[in-house]
Amino acid sequence: MKPASSALAAYAALFAVLLAFGALATIPHALSQRASHELAEMLNLHSTLERRVAMLRKSSEEREESTGALPEKLLLKAPTAGIAEAQLQKSLTEILSDHGAEVTSVEFLPREKENELDKVRLRVSARIGLEGLRNVLYAIEAGTPLLFIEQLSVRPHGDGVRPVSLGAMPRQDVTLVVLGYALCSAED
Known about the structure:
Layout: H1 3-56, H2 60-66, H3 81-98, E1 102-114, E2 117-129, H4 130-142, E3 147-156, E4 171-182
Antiparallel strand pairs: 1-2, 2-4, 3-4
Helix pairs in contact: 1-4
């Protein structure tokens, strides 16, 4: 082979390798875009459910006239707000564990009374992959009792270095503030 042809072949091989690395570098971005799209869909679902709850929050008289009594299966079942918080914690940690999350912290937030309902909130931090997060968000929003995600924070875990393997999705540090309602018959 002539020196010019071998140099040209080397440049062509180098170009092909650089092109392949360039294509591999776009894969995490494409996966992140897909996950962002799925999270946006879940947040739209959240907005729809919030509108439904707003309709349920009408005054007692209006609610009884227009929709009847609030179905009990939509509420946390607890005689006190403290027990409702414990049930909310149990439900959330089970949902997170079922979808491969590692719960790192749980914090009870101040309770509120809204009409005759007790509003209980919980801040949960966990480490989870994006697909697991999508499944967790769906399970929270679509299940019963009605639970609502008030805040969601997602950050890459660790140094943020993406895996090279297509099948490996990095775990994220996720913080959720989740709200539930209970019709408590007694005070704590």
